[in-house]
C-alpha cells in the first residue's frame, strides 16, 4: 500500500476506500463529555497509585507532592486550553507540535501520548484484577486467577470504543460521577459531622521520615493524582464547540481532581499507618474497610471498579486518536487512519493497541507500568512550555482567533518547565535505570523516523489551520 498519497482526513487508498472514503470523526460531544473524559482517565489516581508517594517520603510528603503536582497540572490545563481550542483536531498535543514546531517533535509527542495512555490502561486493568482478587480473598476464595479479569476489562472497553465515541464517553460520564460521589460519601462518613469519627490523624501522622529528600522523591508518584487530564485534547475533533467545551471541561476537571486528591489523602492518612498506606494496592477500598462500615466498603469497592473502568475507557479513546492522527499524516502507515463507515471511529487504531496493553498488563509489575506512563507523560509536559512560547511568538494574540487565552504568560510555561525538571530528578532517584532505558528507546525511534519514515510525510499537506504566515517567516 502506498504511503505517499494525500493525507486528508478520512482518505486512504486501495481496499481501504470502501471503508473510509469521505468519512470523518463526528462532532457530537459537549463540555460534560470533555469533563468525563479528563476526570474519568485521572480519577483512578485517587483510588490507586498515588499512595506510592507516601512510601517514598511519608504522608506529609505525599500531600506536598499532591499540591505541587496540582500546580503543574494547572499550568498544563491552561496551556492546553489555549492551544487546543485553537488547533481543534484529533491528536491533541501531537497536532499542536506538528503545526507549531515540526515533524520530529510531533512524532515523539505522538508516541509519548500513546504510551502514556496505553500504560495507564494496563495499570487500570491490573487494579481491576487486584480488586477482584482482594474481594475473593475476603470471602474465603483464595487463589483466584486475576488474568481473565485483565483480559475481559481491556477487550470489553475496546469493543465499547469501537462502537462509537458518544456511547463511550456517556458511559464514562455516568461511572465517573458515581466514583467521585463515592469519595465524597466516604469523606462525609468518616468525619465527625455524623457521629464518632474513625480517623486518627494525631496517632498516625509522623514527621517526614526521610526528610526533604523524601518530599522530592514523592513528586514521582505525586503526578499520578492528575496524570491524563491533558487527554481532553484528544477529543478536539469530536466536540461541537471546541472554543467553549475544551477550556471548560479541562479546567473544571483540574478543579475536580484537586478536591478529590486532597480528600483522598485526608481520609487514607487518618485510617492507615504510612508504612502500610505506601504499599496498598487499593487504598480507598482499604480505607473503607477500616472505617467499620459495610455500606462504605461496598460503595468504595464499586467506586474503585468504576474509576478503573472509566480511566481505561478514556485511555483507549485517547491513545487510538493519537495513533489515528499519526497514521492520517503518514507518520505511521496510513492503514491506521481508517474510519469505520458506520460507527465513525478509528477502529483499526483501537484494535491494534489492544495487544500492547495486554502484554504490559499481564507481564509487568504495577509500579513499573505506572512509572512508564508517568515518564511518557512527563516528557510530553516538558514539550508544552516550548510549544506555547513559540505559539505566542509566531502568532501573537491579535493575529488569530483563540477560543481561550491563558493568563500570566509566560509564567505558567516557566513554572511547568521547572516542576518537570524537579520531577525528572525525583524519578531518577527511584527508577533511574527505567528513565535511561525509556529515553534511549525514544532516541532510537526518533532516528528510525528521521531516516526511514520521514520520506512518506507530505509537509505541505499537514498545515490544515487557516492561519496567516508566522511572524518572522
UniProtKB/TrEMBL annotation:
Where mainly located? membrane
Looking at the UniProt entry, the stretches that span the membrane are 25-45, 57-79, 100-120, 146-162, 169-189, 209-227, 248-274, 294-316, 347-364, 370-390, 411-429, 435-451
Q: Which residues form the signal peptide?
A: none
Q: Name one GO cellular component term.
A: plasma membrane
Q: Keyword Membrane on this protein?
A: yes
According to the UniProt entry, the coiled-coil residues are: none
Task: Give the record's membrane topology.
Answer: Multi-pass membrane protein
**Subcellular location as annotated:** Cell membrane
One family from Pfam that matches here is: AA_permease_2
Keyword Nucleus applies = no
Q: Which UniProt keywords apply?
A: Cell membrane, Membrane, Transmembrane, Transmembrane helix
One annotated GO molecular function is: transmembrane transporter activity
PANTHER family documented for this protein: AMINO ACID TRANSPORTER-RELATED, MEMBRANE PROTEIN
Supply the name of the protein: Amino acid/polyamine/organocation transporter, APC superfamily
